Amino acid sequence: xxxxxxxxxxxxxxxxxxxxxxxxxxxxxxxxxxxxxxxxxxxxxxxxxxxxxxxxxxxxxxxxxxxxxxxxxxxxxxxxxxxxxxxxxxxxxxxxxxxxxxxxxxxxxxxxxxxxxxxxxxxxxxxxxxxxxxxxxxxxxxxxxxxxxxxxxxxxxxxxxxxxxxxxxxxxxxxxxxxxxxxxxxxxxxxxxxxxxxxxxxxxxxxxxxxxxxxxxxxxxxxxxxxxxxxxxxxxxxxxxxxxxxxxxxxxxxxxxxxxxxxxxxxxxxxxxxxxxxxxxxxxxxxxxxxxxxxxxxxxxxxxxxxxxxxxxxxxxxxxxxxxxxxxxxxxxxxxxxxxxxxxxxxxxxxxxxxxxxxxxxxxxxxxxxxxxxxxxxxxxxxxxxxxxxxxxxxxxxxxxxxxxxx
Length: 407
Known about the structure:
This protein is mainly beta. Helices cover 14% and strands 40% of the residues. Strand 16 and strand 17 form a beta hairpin. The longest helix is centred in the first third of the chain and has 24 residues. The chain is globular and about 90 Å long. 41% of the residues are buried. About 1% of the residues have low confidence.
């Protein structure tokens, strides 16, 4: 069959292998030897080194998948036991603690706690293109960056081990790393690899990688030169998609980068050593119909589940690396042009999720229902939400130009 295929494919080429007598006579061993020799001469065979390298990639990928299975891929039944133990938990925020207005002269588009600092600080990005650090107890702005971007600051993420470093992205297609150390307050690095809005920036939990996602359909990945606070960063990978990318997140072990492009029923998992891709269908039935877009991805504190906010009034909790829909939360108002954001409480017994009706709803993971409490007070759509790393505090920012702290 191989030789017949070669004859067919070589018709009209310079190599007249169809005239070789071994194709009509000789032992099978002779024929096999001739075919191998011909493949070698035509450079159609792989070298031993290339095969070994490919094998190492496959083994590394298999090992990573096994690690993922050990860490997070509980069965539906196992997750159910875990969730049921969390039913009707009350360890979530209830009330507005602080409202801060006037930080920005335009809509506040992104916010993060600087939760490993000695002071009660938040960092915000606004439609006024300015980045500000504010003491959320006093309301005093301690520092301001006005010359980093020429567009609104729409996304940010705090470094996991160097908490004074913040990765930010802008609608001007740039993203940057800002050092908020009181002695420097400097721009560590600025990247201009995208052609459209940078809508997501994320650090890997081990701090060795960072990624940016854009409406240009690309995700760029960068590696740190070291673990030191003065590390430099260089681009190591570009991932390309057919449509705009709405969300990215790294798994808890930093071994996978997950991307969610528009008009796609798959979550795209990329192994961060081999960059092999694993597709995970978000449809429970396994069909190819695209009925929603994953707009926001948030990893659970234990790394086992992936919270996925959609543009169809629905938040899905997947078992990491699988199509298992461990939970579905309904009852928010988030349509095609929404920018929903979600996060877990500290014990991951509850989920906070934004809604286009200006509220943040709290869902009980155990019962899969709203727990009767919602965070109300914003007069515009809530654009971002973040939970403190060690306290049950939540911060939100809104198109009403305010920032709120909830406890």
